Amino acid sequence: QANQKKEKETANTAKKSSYLSQPIISKIYTADPSAHVFNGKIYVYPSHDIEAGTPENDNGDHFDMRDYHILSMDSVNGKVTDHGVALSIKDIPWAGRQLWAPDAAFKNGTYYLYFPVKDKSDVFRIGVATSKNPAGPFKAEPEPIKGSFSIDPAVFTDTDGASYMYFGGIWGGQLQRWDNGKYDANGSKTDSQKENEPALSAKVAKLSSDMLSFDGEVKDVQLVDKQGKALLTNDHDRRFFEGAWMHKFNGKYYFTYSTGDTHYLAYAIGDKPYGPFVYEGTFMKPVQGWTTHHSILEIKGKWYIFYHDTQLSGKTHLRNVKVTELKHNADGTIQMIEPWVE
Ligand code: FUB
Predict the structure, then answer these.
(1) Which of 234, 265, 32 is nearest to 152 (CA)?
(2) What's the pTM value of the predicted model, to 2 decimals?
(3) Which of 52, 260, 270, 312 gets the highest tally of CB atoms within 10 A of its CB?
(4) Which residues form the catalytic set?
(5) Which of 207, 249, 223 has its CA nearest to residue 103?
């Protein structure tokens, strides 16, 4: 028996060691981590995955999340505190179903939680909720942000204080249904109708000074190759799919995102928050599980990537957040991260 126990332990260790890092919390399933430093502490705003029993399909109905929990830690590998329910779908007056990847920001003494959720007509919109505490609880505004649609808001505040929201996701994220600025409920489930045309773009909008609405129009995030040509839909290894993030390094704007069906994290570099962004490469190989979603954070002179995989459950809709170091090379490129070895 002792031998059997030892064998099991050895097998577990071998399994664990095939991952670059371990889940930061294992009591609940968490995904889509947006990490920020507030008051010298790291706060992580993730999706809270649950087994809702909703059957899996191409629309992502099995990602049927109902609330958010915020996590905090004093340092990257420090103890993680789960602050409990920060916002529940029941308290969002306009929400229908599926609370997906959130983000947060701070301005003028208030914390803002941005979240995508389907409205009562099953159309994804982006809402905002406020709190005086980075860990919540948050109170949702009565309506979604006017002019918002699709999923995965990521809010970036530039060094001049202006804040921008990057958002959008194709397939289950519905971006392909927003041709001509109007939602087409009978539109395609994927982007595969337009393989030889320019790929769908993520969106960017400047936020108003009260952080509750868009200030001006929603623009396309232009993603081009080194010759300045737009990436095409059939370029699945490079085109935008979902999970946008923005960070600034050495004065350059890094637009990072998931390529979705090819499961890479990719980056493109620009000179302005609106782009255009020139595709540079991938910086993380596929994680375990279908989705890949990240955020990038600088603390104490080092850069980190928060991401997720499915190490704890082996199920694509029950994910766990992880963190590892991210390194920029002297020429501004990002070193490749291999999240696990099969
Ligand atoms: O968590 C639901 C969705 O899965 C997110 O919105 C996407 O980015 C993907 O991670």
Answers:
(1) 32
(2) 0.95
(3) 260
(4) 32, 242
(5) 207
- 158's tokens: 């530039």
Cβ–Cβ contacts within 10 Å for residue 213, how many? 16
Ligand 1, pocket-test mutation among 29, 32, 259, 320, most atoms within 8 A of CB: 32
**Ligand 1 test: best mutation among 29, 30, 57, 100, most atoms within 8 Å of CB?**
100
The residues of the chain scoring below 50 in pLDDT are 1-3, 5-13
C-alpha distance from residue 155 to each of 4, 89, 114, 149, 244 (Å): 51, 21, 8, 15, 10
Task: Using the mean position of ligand 1's atoms as its centre, give its distance from the Cα of residue 32 in Å.
Answer: 6
Q: What is the pLDDT of residue 58?
A: 86
CB proximity list for 226: less than 8 A, separation 6 or greater: 278, 279
